[in-house]
């Protein structure tokens, strides 16, 4: 499969001397749904800023669908749509005008621009708000407006920088469905998010950036397989006073109705229930203590922090 | 038509249309105030005080100050439109909409400049129409009048753009108009002929670019000027080219916009 995005030895040093990127290499295949994760200040937004030409790089190359950022910026820009983290539209303009104006910047004739604006605003549930000044939209609507605006020139690569931040769960799920449909239509998507459940559910590949370097770049399944131990919380039917003796399963009592158990993947979970059953402990339900990707992410970042500190 | 020309023409049309829509939407802030201010100038300076002053340069005082007041409106509105619109786009970060798009820096610059020029010229037309309620005006040289007013609107639109690029807060976009533009305009021969000044101050006044523009425009309308028209026109053409190249360079570098 051909490459949608190819970054080589990308560095960025800001005017104050802060080195945000320390020579990263990153490849995203065409058609991928890629998660770019990292703690705050890791370099995610700088990377996206450089790709979308809002930040000047210091050294390195960026190539999108064969278009080099230095040699052919106009063609490169035509290929990408950007949904930034912060609202960046004119708060006094009407919703419809914002989207149509953006189409004009891409050289799309007004007639086609208006048709597409109607299509995307309808799909994103904003058509009845088309004549409303954008400042009066809710936070979720403003995020959807930025998605409609980013899609108006029908980009091949869509970059979303925390698109669901501050969005309620119902709307978040509807946005997940919308983004999945876009990806199925062939649009390559790069997503940054702090909701790791979101990344796990949507993305096929993942890159983790920390302190300006890529510390992991692999498939989502491959990464999740690296998680050898998962922590589960068991909701118990009857209260117990002390944690049951469980061979091979480190456990502790959270409260008299909740038992926390660590499960090694090589052992599995079946024997746990056998042991609990023998001790007359009945389990109503179980859940992961934290998201699986979150456990891995925290582990990787902590490991990298120790390395950087050395 | 080349593959990049047509999209850039559509983008240019979009920017200009958006700029016009902006100042028309807020017309009580953009078109009405200069009209009211200039009517007050006509009544107080032209009519009440002007009757006591008598003739100037062979014309009534009202006739003498009308070209200067029209230019004053064009200057402040061309400048004000670009500086407030572009700084507003920076402040709200909507300038990023333009920067992520493939539109060329020249298209952006021409679009904003045309927006400023159109507001300046529209206000100029409004003030001209209002002046006709106070005095009769015969245009002496239409070509010079049009060229001078268009070049002036262009120059001050470009200056407004530079101010907006360097501005970091709202104070920065009011400092230049208050402490530079207004004094230069008032001392630029709007209300008087520099022949009334002592020789030393006449020479100093020649360094004021607004003086050249006002006098060239007055020549176009009334046929009288304190300075040579050829010098004024040459100065305006050179200023337009230099300012355009400077603005284009600022845009390409991303100064004040890209990190």
List the helices and strands and how they pair.
The complex is a heterodimer of chains A (310) and B (259).
Chain A: E1 3-13, E2 19-29, E3 33-37, H1 44-51, E4 59-64, E5 67-68, H2 73-79, E6 80-83, H3 95-105, H4 110-123, H5 139-151, E7 157-161, H6 169-184, E8 188-192, H7 196-202, E9 205-210, E10 213-219, H8 220-225, E11 229-236, E12 251-255, E13 258-264, H9 270-278, E14 283-288, H10 292-309
Parallel strand pairs in A: 3-8, 3-9, 6-7, 7-8
Antiparallel strand pairs in A: 1-2, 1-4, 4-5, 9-10, 11-13, 11-14, 12-13
Helix pairs in contact in A: 3-4, 3-5
Chain B: H1 5-25, H2 27-30, H3 32-53, E1 55-56, E2 59-60, H4 61-91, H5 95-99, H6 105-131, H7 142-166, H8 172-186, H9 199-205, H10 209-222, H11 229-253
Antiparallel strand pairs in B: 1-2
Helix pairs in contact in B: 1-6, 3-4, 3-6, 4-6, 4-7, 4-8, 4-10, 6-7, 7-10, 7-11, 10-11
**Domain count of chain A:** 2
Continuous helix count of chain B = 11
Radius of gyration of chain B from the CA trace? Answer: 19 Å
Pick out the low-confidence regions of chain A.
none
N-end to C-end Cα span of chain A = 39 Å
Tell me the total number of β-strands of chain A: 14
Q: Could you tell me the radius of gyration of chain A in angstroms?
A: 23 Å
The residue fraction in helices of chain A comes out at 25-40%
Shape of chain A: globular
> What is the CA–CA distance across the termini of chain B?
35 Å
CATH superfamily of the largest domain in chain A: P-loop containing nucleotide triphosphate hydrolases
CATH overall fold name of the largest domain in chain A: Rossmann fold
By oligomeric state, this entry counts as heterodimer
